[in-house]
Design goal:
Structural class: alpha+beta
Helix content: 25-40%
Number of strands: 5
Shape: rod-shaped
Strand content: 15-25%
Radius of gyration: 27 Å
Length: 187
């Protein structure tokens, strides 16, 4: 008794036989995105982040190379810390006060987040970049469909090919699926 092969399996078979496997034996298609995790200073470090007590990032070195926006944030949210910092670096005018621009200029020239103490409710985090697998597919077409459908839920998604060569069951499954289109062509 022969059973009818579902349409989606026939389509998958055709796609697997035609797709560019990117020089990979038994390819499986992964949809990935870049993500960041905490690390120690100097260990695969990609950037630093300064976070407030609520987990909100108030400074990120790879997005804001200068400290100008962070200095403005400090002036608005940590006035007493700014006063102490200005005393430490002698940032005052003739009347013994400092002006916003003088603070920002000095801050840009002297501030080092890895050395200077931050306000107590801010934390410095060293981050490394990783690749995060979002989903896995048997065909490139299916992986690209997923990206079109779900891109709005993730950072920039892209495809990556991994090999299932050392997975005998996956290799057999791929071989069987690919054989379906071949069988359809036989009389």
């Amino acid at each position: 008794m022969e059973c009818e092969i579902p349409y989606f399996l026939m389509e998958m078979s055709k796609q697997m036989r035609k797709q560019n496997n990117r020089g990979t034996a038994a390819p499986i298609w992964q949809v990935r995105c870049k993500d960041y995790v905490a690390t120690e200073e100097g260990i695969n470090e990609h950037h630093i982040e300064i976070m407030d007590m609520n987990g909100q990032c108030v400074y990120r070195s790879d997005m804001d190379a200068s400290f100008e926006s962070f200095a403005s944030y400090l002036l608005s949210n940590h006035k007493s810390w700014c006063d102490e910092w200005c005393d430490l670096y002698d940032v005052v005018n003739d009347s013994g006060k400092y002006e916003k621009r003088a603070f920002i200029n000095s801050f840009l020239a002297y501030f080092n987040p890895c050395i200077d103490e931050l306000p107590v409710d801010l934390s410095l985090i060293h981050c490394q970049e990783i690749e995060k697998v979002i989903s896995t597919h048997l065909t490139e077409e299916d992986a690209n469909w997923f990206i079109r459908r779900k891109q709005h839920h993730h950072p920039k998604l892209y495809t990556h090919v991994e090999s299932a060569y050392w997975s005998p069951q996956m290799k057999e499954l791929r071989k069987w699926i690919m054989s379906l289109a071949e069988k359809e062509q036989q009389p």
